[in-house]
């Protein structure tokens, strides 16, 4: 009985420690890269930055509860796939664009590799490569 209690206590401690580490990493990412203020600047919605922060916290809380409580939506499969795929794509695209812009990866890369004249082509190649690679993976390997 005491051993079971100790195991459960250890599992709870490890779980809370892991959650604290992941949460701290996310907060550090948001603060160090100034993602919320940069998103407000790009969206020209300076007065709504509190709403962006609230959306991040609210989304984190919602999906935590959805995961822990095994929430399910009774929707047709195709509509869920289209809607969630659209939202996931928007999220990943905005996050990648924000990280790329904040870190100034592309200008530094183009300057070091003497590709400054081809920066637009480089970006388009990356976008098309990512899109075609995702489509290939989804259509070929997932089906």
Can you describe this structure?
This protein has 143 residues and is an all-alpha fold. Helices cover 82% and strands 0% of the residues. It has helices spanning 2-32, 35-42, 49-68, 77-103, 105-112, 119-141. The longest helix is centred in the N-terminal third of the chain and has 31 residues, at 2-32. It starts with a helix and ends with a helix. The mean pLDDT is 82.
Give descriptors for this structure.
mainly alpha; single chain; extended; 143 residues
Give a concise summary:
The protein is built from six helices and no strands. It is mainly α and 143 residues long.
Which runs of at least 5 residues are low in confidence (pLDDT < 50)?
none
How would a crystallographer describe the biggest sheet? Answer: none
Q: How many helices?
A: 6
Terminal CA distance reads: 48 Å
Order of helices and strands: HHHHHH
Share of helix among residues? over 70%
Q: Approximately what portion of the residues adopt beta-strand conformation?
A: under 5%
Mean pLDDT, to the nearest integer, reads: 82
β-strand number: 0
For the CA atoms, what is the radius of gyration? 21 Å
Supply the helix-strand structural class: mainly alpha
General shape: extended
């Amino acid at each position: 009985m005491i051993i079971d209690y100790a195991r459960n206590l250890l599992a709870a401690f490890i779980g809370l420690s892991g959650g604290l580490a992941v949460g701290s990493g996310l907060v550090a990412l948001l603060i160090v890269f100034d993602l919320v203020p940069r998103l407000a600047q790009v969206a020209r919605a300076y007065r709504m930055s509190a709403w962006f922060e609230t959306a991040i916290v609210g989304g984190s809380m919602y999906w935590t509860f959805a995961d822990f409580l095994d929430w399910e939506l009774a929707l047709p499969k195709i509509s869920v796939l289209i809607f969630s795929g659209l939202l996931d794509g928007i999220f990943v695209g905005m996050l990648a664009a924000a990280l790329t812009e904040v870190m100034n990866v592309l200008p530094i890369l183009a300057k070091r590799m003497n590709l400054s004249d081809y920066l637009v082509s480089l970006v388009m190649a990356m976008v098309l490569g990512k899109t075609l690679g995702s489509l290939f993976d989804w259509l070929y390997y997932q089906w």
